[in-house]
């Protein structure tokens, strides 16, 4: 299994480390910044002796090295700074992504592509259209990270193990995300049996603002530890054909009443990428919230099309 990671910043480099430690396959780490990917690759090579584990990684500035990759992860792009929303990165990251996807189309025509670049749902849609790949082979990492954040906050609130909590988050990986308190369970028991509506809403709000909270505290950069694990879970689910249900930004063609848009929904992930889109039974207000999230994404897509065609 050959995994190409495009972007050797903090997210890309840590993803490479996790993928190697999971023994998923060989890694090619690519970055246009001179020496960056090579340096990170050498550093990762040097930990092999400490792990007593053999693996292969190559760092390069040449995107041609991704040729023949089975899985590609795109982390390249500008990151948020304090005061910025993910959507503020739209135009510049679209330019970066377009160039990458045009090369992917010729160099790795059979690959499954995982998009991490923000704004994630828009960039996923853009990557899908530029590559021309089947929708099951291009999707974005996003709401699985948001679900983990929601679980963590619930765990802290109730002083219980994260292992006992299951939840879903739908919608965009941004202000329009929809953490579903109603469908959250603790050992199969509804969260509503543990917390009142007001407390659940506060946890939902904190989940939505979690990425911004981290950006503001860092001052320069954004989260990379948890995101890299969310990416690695997807890579592993594909490589090992795990058929796990994981929230991703997927292209919808009628599911949830939405068409021609990429947005966060639970999907079964296996060797062919998205093997099934899971449609949850939503209440009217939840359906409306998901529609509002989709409408916001549609507006951003229209703005992108005006700028880039």
Overall pLDDT metric? 95
The shape, in one word, is globular
Give the termini separation.
Answer: 35 Å
In terms of structural class, how would the helical and strand content be classed? alpha/beta
The number of helical elements comes to 10
Beta-strand level of the residues, as a percent range?
A: 15-25%
**Strand order within the widest beta sheet:** 3-2-1-4-5-6-12-13-14
> What gyration radius follows from the Cα positions, in whole Å?
19 Å
Q: What's the helical proportion of residues?
A: 40-55%
**Biggest β-sheet description:** 9 strands, mixed
In CATH, the architecture of the domain at 2-142 is 3-Layer(aba) Sandwich
Please name the fourth-level CATH homologous superfamily of the domain at 2-142.
NAD(P)-binding Rossmann-like Domain
Can you tell me the CATH class of the domain at 2-142? Answer: Alpha Beta
Topology:
Blueprint: E1 2-6, H1 10-21, E2 26-30, H2 36-46, H3 48-51, E3 57-60, E4 71-74, H4 90-107, E5 112-115, H5 120-131, E6 138-141, H6 143-158, E7 165-166, E8 169-171, E9 177-179, E10 185-186, E11 189-190, H7 197-208, H8 210-218, H9 225-239, E12 244-253, E13 259-270, E14 273-277, H10 284-308
Molecular structure report:
The strands form three sheets. A nine-stranded mixed beta sheet has the order 3-2-1-4-5-6-12-13-14, with helices on both faces. It has 309 residues and is of the alpha/beta class. It has ten helices and 14 strands. Helices cover 43% and strands 21% of the residues. The protein has a domain at 2-142: 3-Layer(aba) Sandwich (Rossmann fold).
């Amino acid at each position: 299994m050959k995994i190409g990671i495009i972007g050797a910043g903090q997210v890309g480099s840590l993803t490479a480390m996790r993928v190697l430690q999971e023994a998923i396959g060989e890694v090619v780490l690519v970055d246009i910044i001179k020496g960056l990917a090579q340096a990170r690759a050498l550093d990762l090579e040097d930990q092999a002796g400490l792990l007593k584990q053999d693996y292969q990684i190559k760092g390069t500035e040449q995107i041609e090295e991704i040729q023949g990759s089975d899985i590609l992860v795109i982390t390249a792009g500008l990151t948020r700074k304090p005061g910025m929303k993910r959507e503020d990165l739209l135009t510049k990251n679209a330019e970066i992504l377009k160039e990458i996807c045009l090369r992917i189309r010729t160099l790795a025509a059979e690959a499954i592509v995982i998009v991490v670049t923000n704004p994630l749902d828009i960039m996923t849609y853009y990557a899908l259209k530029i590559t021309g790949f089947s929708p099951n082979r291009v999707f974005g990492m996003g709401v699985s990270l948001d679900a983990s954040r929601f679980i963590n906050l619930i765990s802290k609130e109730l002083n219980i193990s994260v292992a006992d909590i299951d939840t879903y988050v739908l919608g965009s990986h941004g202000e329009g995300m929809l953490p579903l308190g109603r469908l959250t369970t603790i050992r199969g028991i509804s969260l509503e049996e543990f917390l009142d509506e007001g407390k659940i809403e506060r946890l939902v709000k904190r989940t939505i603002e979690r990425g911004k909270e981290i950006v503001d505290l860092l001052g320069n950069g954004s989260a990379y530890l948890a995101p890299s694990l969310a990416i690695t879970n997807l890579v592993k689910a594909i490589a090992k054909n795990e058929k796990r249900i994981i929230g991703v930004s997927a292209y919808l063609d009628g599911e949830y009443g939405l068409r021609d848009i990429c947005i966060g929904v639970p999907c079964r992930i296996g060797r062919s990428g998205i093997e099934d889109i899971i449609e949850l039974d939503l209440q009217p207000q939840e359906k409306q919230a998901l529609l509002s999230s989709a409408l916001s994404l549609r507006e951003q897509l229209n703005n992108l099309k005006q700028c880039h065609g």
